[in-house]
Fold PucR family transcriptional regulator.
Amino acid sequence: MHYETVLREGSAVVVAELAVEVEKQLPGLIDTTVEQIRAEMPVYREAQFVTLAELRTSVRNNLEFVMRTLRGTEEPDLAQARATGRARALQGAPLPELLRAYRIGLTEVWNRFVELTASGEHQDLRGLVAATSAIWALIDDYAEALTTTYRDTTAEVMLAHQSRRSALVEALFAGGAATEGTLWDIARVLELSLDGAYVVVAAETPRVGHEPLPQIENRLRDRHHASAWRLTPDLQVGVVSMRDPSVSQVIIELLRENQTGRIGVSPVFTGLGNTSRALHLARVALSSMMPGTTGMVQFNESPLAGLVASAPEASVQLAHHVLRPLLDLPGDDRNVLLLTLRTWFECQGSTKLTSERMFCHPNTIRHRLKRISEELGRSLTDPADIAELGAALRALHMFPDTSHLPPPRDPLR
């Protein structure tokens, strides 16, 4: 401690004698300190964190300890400073104001020492120097103990708050078990509206423990959008509140700024209780993109892709059932015909555009399409057949590693 190293045996005696005299003035010293604190500090004058009675009690306890320490009747135990630091941290009082209140109190003590050493029988420059050194050393010790305890308590409170917030975010995304009362509590703690408009975002993590959208909550808050986020080993997921559905594009553009992988976004939805369902749709949107790519898809941008991604096993079975005759062809034949069929779909069924994109004569494309139709036993003019082919191609594109495998086992057999 600073205090114990500052005072030598001789100066300690001088300080103790002065402290005995100052202690006689303690009631007035307490009143003066309280008045000074309230005059100089609005947070105490307006009782924002402690009442007048609580302030007076705190000032009395701390000044009584100071006087006992200066008299030498008690070892410099900073438990009172630590207790005050913890109490004010729990109340949310600002640390600078708290330290300032301590300085005011100890400065009032020093003023009484100055008055004693400047007049009467105690007039003694050596005594004033000793008292000044002792008091300011004590201020240093107080400030250090109070600050350390205040910061430790603040960190403890923040950790507890973050743990509770994380649990509530988890409950929000899990859905199902949340009652109306639980939802109200979640909305209150997360500062979200029960009936507001939202989107859910699911962003693929680059590696475990790393956020693909760093500082996204703060960046959204800067644009007046409240949100709540959770990091899992494979995803960073968040529910984002919108002032109205029309600002969805603003949020999308913000998410695009630093994207490093796949990002899925749910449709705009209303009501916090629908977050779990929206998370499923955001995951589906993310899964509609090829692994290893970078991009963003909102669920309603590609309903077919979403449908395929939401049921991988069924989609793979569909692809094998519909496209098996092509998949069984030798490598070159298979690749050329599948590429032709996929390009034809991308060109909206235009033979001319397909031939231009594949650098082939239109008659070549017509010949290939005719063979595809014969191999598959399906018509490229029948809407039902076209719908099945489109879904099968989408599934094959989304799950390419399954194209060489035998058809999935029929679960009904």
Remarks:
- The domain at 310-398 is CATH 1.10.10.2840 (Arc Repressor Mutant, subunit A).
